[in-house]
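Hey, I'm writing a tutorial for new members on how sequence and structure tokens pair up, and I'd like a real worked example in the thread rather than a made-up one. If someone can provide the structure for the chain below, I'll link this post from the tutorial.
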Amino acid sequence: MTARSAGLALLLALAQPAAAQVAEPEGYRMEDYRSPVPETLAGGTVVGPEEAHALWETGDVAFIDVNPRAPRPANLPEGTIWRDKPRYSIPGAIWLPNVGYGAIAEVTHAYFRAGLDKATGGDTAHPVLFFCLDDCWMSWNAAKRALEDGYTGVYWFPEGTDGWTFFDYPVERLEAEPDEPGAQ
């Protein structure tokens, strides 16, 4: 590479706009759930795909998928067959849909706590890892909620199943935990 082309490459690299840092909100994210997320979670540990995979391989961390799912439309004509979109996720994960919204009803919060109790045996010190998709605030909100509920070993995997499958790690079809509020 000549000095001239090296200088041009340097100028082009410097001319690229820097990615804006997303600040952690004081409360929960209440809208625009599929948008850039912060790089941090106060009180929790942020992990990437390789770290998440290493934690998964230990078998010592409860993996909690909080990817939302649409409810069956109430106005479907009688006899219409409704098929939920299948959720392919990290093997062994527990799927707690719709618990990552910013504002959730008490019945949904109870469902969240019951799912965490099942995954951790009721031990708030048991490590838990929250995820959904890349740039999905649902997992950030759920991890924050777990911290506020007293969980101390909270991991957040912001790339979620998108990052997981990019590394060609295994996935399996999950069913949502029973008694999901609003499910029909």
